[in-house]
C-alpha cells in the first residue's frame, strides 16, 4: 500500500523530460491511429472493393482519406516520434535535462499546427495529398498549420545542440557518446533538408492568402523533393538509432562496432539531401545529366543502409550465440522472438531488405519509367516507412511507455500478435502492389474501385487484388490490437516501482570509439556539415538558380 501511494505521487517530478517524451509520443500514436484507419479502405480500393461510401457524410471522397492517411502517418506521426526519441535518448545518455520550457513550446507548436491544419483537412478543403503538388491549392490554414508543425522541429534541433554544447564544455576532448552523436548529425541533416520545404511553404502561404497570383509547379515540386527525399531518412534514422542503441541489448548481445555506427550517420548527413531528382525523373525542365548525377548520389546513400544491414545482423548474431544458438543459422532461432520489441525490429528489418532492393530499382533512372506513378511505389514505401519505421516505433512503445509512466505493459500476448499480423499484412499487401504496379501498370492514387472502366481494364490482375483485400483485413486487426495495447497501458492506473526505475536499455559496444581513428574523424561534425552544404549547393544550385530566374506562375486549382 505504501508503495502504491509513493508511486501515485508524481512520477515526473524528478524527470519532467519523461512527461514531455510521453506526450510527444502519444500524440504521434494518436495521429497514426487516425491515419492508419484509412489504410484498409485504400487496400480494399486496390482490391476492387469500394468501401468509401460507408464513410460518408464524415469523409467526402477517396482523396480526402488518402490525404489524411499520408499527412497523419508520414508527416505527423514520424516527426513526433523523432522529436521523442532523438531528444529523450541523448538527454538520458548525457544525464542532462533539455531546456524544458522550449521542449514544451515545441510540443504546443506541434499540437497547435496540427489542429490548425486538421480543420481544412477534415472539412475537405485541403485534399491535396501529402505532397501538395501545385497547382492543387488547399485552404491557407493547411499550409500555415503544416508550417507551424514542421517549425516545431527546429526547437528540437536547438534542444539537442544545446545539451551537446553543455556536455562538451564539461567534458573537453572526450568523444561524444553514441546516442548524442546520432542525434546531433540527425538534426543537422534535418535542418539542411528542411530548407526546401520552408521556402516552398513561404510561396504556398502567400499564394493561398492571395498575395501572389500563382506559383511555378516545377519549382514547387523541386523544392518539395529537395526535402521529400531526405525526409524519408528523417523517418528512418530514429528507427536505426534504436536498432543500434537498444536492439542488441534487448536481444541479449552487444553492438559489434560503435565507430561504424558513427560512419553510418555521417554518411546520411552527407548524402541524404542531394538526391531529390530521383523523384522527378519524369519531370520535364530538368536536364537528364542532373538526374544522372542524383542517381549516382542515390546509390551512395544506400551505402549506410548496407553497412547497417551488416552491423545489425552481426550484432544479432552475437546475441543469438550468447543465448546458446549454434551452427550457421542456429543463432537466428535463439533470438528472443517472444519479446514484442525484438520481434518488431526483426520483422521490420526483414521487410526492409526487399524494400531497399525496390528502392534501387526506383533509383535506376530508366527502370524508374516502368514503376513511376504505379502502385509499385506504395508497395516500396510501405515496406520502408509502413513496416520498418512503424514497427520500430510500435516495438519501442512496448518498453518506452512503461519506462516513462511506470505502468506495466498490458496484454503482452496481444502485443506479440499485433506485430506478427502487421508484418504479415504488410508483406501480402506490398507483394501484391509491387506485382500490380510492375506487370499491370496499375496507377497509384487512383480510386479504381469507384470506376467500372478501370475495373474492366485491370481485370487480369484480379488474383492480386484479392490479396489486397486479405491484407486490408489483417492490417485492420493488427492496428486494432496494437492501439488497444498501448492506450490501455498508458491509461491504466497501476504503477510499479520497478518500471519507474528501469533504465533505457542502452547497448554496450564491442569495438569502442576510444582510440578509433574513424571515430575521431566523425567527431568533426561541423566540418562534415560544411561538406554536406557544399554537396547540396553543387547538386542543386545551378538548377534552382535557373528555375528561380524562369518562373512560370499558374493559378490554383481544386480538383476534388
Ligand atoms: Fe524510397 C519513393 C529510392 C529508401 C520512402 N520512397 C519513395 C516514396 C516514399 C519512400 C514514401 O529512386 C514515395 C514518395 C511519393 O509519394 O512519391 N528509397 C529509394 C532508395 C532507398 C530508399 C534508393 N524510401 C526509402 C526509405 C523510406 C522511403 C528508407 C522511408 C522510410 N524511393 C526511391 C525512389 C523513389 C522512392 C527513386 C521515387 C520513385 C518514383 O518514381 O516515384 C534506399 O535508402 C534504400 C537502402 C536500403 C537497403 C536495405 C538494407 C537492408 C537492411 C536490413 C538488414 C536486415 C537485418 C535483418 C539486419 C539497401 C538494413 C536480420 C534479421 C534476422 C531475422 C536475422
Ligand atoms: C498510401 C494502405 C499504413 C504511409 C497507401 C496506399 C495504400 C495504403 C493501399 C495507396 C493508395 C493510393 O495510392 O491510392 C495502407 C494500409 C496500412 C497503411 C492498409 C495499415 C493499416 C501506413 C503507414 C504509413 C503509411 C503506417 C506511414 C507511417 C502511406 C503514404 C501513402 C500511403 C505516405 C501515400 C499517400 C499518397 O499517395 O498521397 N497506403 N497503409 N501507410 N500510405 Fe499507407
Ligand atoms: Cu527518395
TrEMBL record:
State where it is primarily located. Answer: membrane
> Which sequence ranges are marked TM in the entry?
20-42, 62-89, 101-122, 142-161, 181-210, 230-247, 259-277, 297-320, 341-361, 381-401, 421-442, 462-487, 525-545
Which Gene Ontology cellular component terms are annotated?
Answer: membrane
Cytochrome oxidase subunit I profile domain: residues covered: 1-489
GO molecular function annotation: cytochrome-c oxidase activity; heme binding; oxidoreductase activity
Spell out the subcellular localization from the entry. Membrane
Going by the record, the broad EC class of this enzyme is oxidoreductase
UniProt xrefs under InterPro entries: Cyt_c_oxase-like_su1_dom, Cyt_c_oxase-like_su1_sf, Cyt_C_Oxase_1, Cyt_c_Oxase_su1_BS
Which E.C. number(s) belong to this protein?
A: 1.9.3.1
Q: How does it sit in the membrane?
A: Multi-pass membrane protein
Keywords in alphabetical order: Electron transport, Heme, Iron, Membrane, Metal-binding, Oxidoreductase, Respiratory chain, Transmembrane, Transmembrane helix, Transport
**Which Gene Ontology terms describe the biological processes this protein takes part in?**
aerobic respiration
Q: Which family does it belong to?
A: Belongs to the heme-copper respiratory oxidase family.
**Name the UniProt record assigns to this protein:** Cytochrome c oxidase subunit 1
Which source organism?
Meiothermus taiwanensis
Lineage per the UniProt record:
Bacteria, Thermotogati, Deinococcota, Deinococci, Thermales
Which gene carries the instructions for this protein? cbaA
Amino acid at each position: 500500500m505504501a508503495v502504491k501511494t509513493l508511486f501515485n505521487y508524481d512520477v515526473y517530478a524528478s524527470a519532467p523530460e519523461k512527461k514531455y517524451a510521453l506526450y510527444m509520443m502519444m500524440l504521434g500514436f494518436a495521429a497514426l491511429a487516425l491515419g492508419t484507419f484509412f489504410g484498409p479502405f485504400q487496400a480494399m480500393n486496390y482490391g476492387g472493393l469500394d468501401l468509401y461510401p460507408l464513410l460518408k457524410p464524415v469523409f467526402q471522397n477517396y482523396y480526402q482519406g488518402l490525404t489524411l492517411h499520408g499527412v497523419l502517418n508520414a508527416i505527423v506521426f514520424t516527426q513526433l516520434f523523432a522529436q521523442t526519441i532523438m531528444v529523450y535518448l541523448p538527454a538520458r545518455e548525457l544525464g542532462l535535462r533539455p531546456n524544458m520550457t522550449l521542449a514544451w513550446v515545441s510540443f504546443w507548436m506541434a499540437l497547435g499546427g496540427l489542429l490548425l491544419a486538421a480543420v481544412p483537412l477534415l472539412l475537405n478543403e485541403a485534399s491535396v495529398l501529402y505532397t501538395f503538388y501545385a497547382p492543387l491549392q488547399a485552404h491557407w490554414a493547411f499550409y500555415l498549420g503544416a508550417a507551424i508543425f514542421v517549425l516545431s522541429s527546429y526547437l528540437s534541433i536547438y534542444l539537442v545542440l544545446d545539451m551537446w554544447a553543455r556536455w562538451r564544455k564539461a567534458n573537453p576532448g572526450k568523444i561524444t557518446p553514441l546516442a548524442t552523436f546520432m542525434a546531433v548529425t540527425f538534426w543537422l541533416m534535418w535542418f539542411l533538408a528542411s530548407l526546401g520545404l520552408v521556402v516552398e511553404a513561404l510561396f504556398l502561404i502567400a499564394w493561398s492568402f492571395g498575395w501572389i497570383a500563382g506559383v511555378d509547379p516545377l519549382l514547387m515540386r523541386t523544392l518539395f523533393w529537395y526535402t521529400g527525399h531526405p525526409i524519408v531518412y528523417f523517418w528512418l534514422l530514429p528507427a536505426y538509432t534504436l536498432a543500434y542503441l537498444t536492439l542488441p541489448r534487448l536481444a541479449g548481445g552487444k553492438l559489434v562496432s560503435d565507430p561504424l555506427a558513427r560512419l553510418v550517420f555521417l554518411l546520411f548527413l552527407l548524402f541524404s539531401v542531394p538526391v531529390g531528382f530521383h523523384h522527378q525523373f519524369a519531370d520535364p525542365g530538368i536536364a537528364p545529366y542532373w538526374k544522372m548525377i542524383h542517381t549516382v548520389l542515390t546509390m551512395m546513400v544506400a551505402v549506410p543502409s548496407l553497412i547497417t544491414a551488416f552491423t545489425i545482423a552481426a550484432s544479432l548474431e552475437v546475441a543469438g550465440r550468447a543465448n546458446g544458438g549454434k551452427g550457421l543459422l542456429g543463432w537466428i532461432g535463439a533470438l528472443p522472438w517472444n519479446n514484442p520489441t525484438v520481434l518488431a525490429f526483426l520483422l521490420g528489418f526483414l521487410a526492409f531488405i526487399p524494400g531497399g532492393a525496390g528502392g534501387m530499382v526506383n533509383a535506376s533512372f530508366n527502370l524508374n519509367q516502368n514503376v513511376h506513378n504505379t502502385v509499385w511505389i506504395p508497395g516500396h514505401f510501405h515496406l520502408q516507412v509502413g513496416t520498418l519505421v512503424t514497427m520500430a516505433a510500435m516495438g519501442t512503445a512496448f518498453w518506452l511507455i512503461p519506462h516513462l509512466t511506470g505502468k506495466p505493459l498490458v496484454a503482452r500476448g496481444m502485443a506479440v500478435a499485433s506485430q506478427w499480423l502487421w508484418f504479415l499484412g504488410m508483406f501480402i499487401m506490398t507483394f501484391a502492389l509491387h506485382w500490380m504496379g510492375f506487370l499491370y501498370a496499375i496507377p497509384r492514387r487512383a480510386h479504381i474501385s469507384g470506376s467500372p472502366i478501370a475495373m474492366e481494364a485491370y481485370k487480369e490482375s484480379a488474383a492480386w487484388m484479392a490479396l489486397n483485400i486479405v491484407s486490408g483485413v489483417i492490417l485492420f486487426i493488427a492496428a486494432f490490437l496494437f492501439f488497444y495495447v498501448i492506450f490501455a497501458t498508458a491509461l491504466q492506473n497501476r504503477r510499479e516501482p520497478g518500471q519507474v526505475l528501469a533504465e533505457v536499455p542502452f547497448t554496450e559496444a564491442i569495438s569502442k570509439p576510444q582510440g578509433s581513428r574513424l571515430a575521431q574523424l566523425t567527431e568533426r561534425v561541423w566540418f562534415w556539415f560544411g561538406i554536406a552544404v557544399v554537396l547540396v549547393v553543387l547538386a542543386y544550385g545551378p538548377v534552382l538558380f535557373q528555375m528561380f530566374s524562369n518562373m512560370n506562375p499558374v493559378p490554383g486549382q481544386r480538383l476534388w
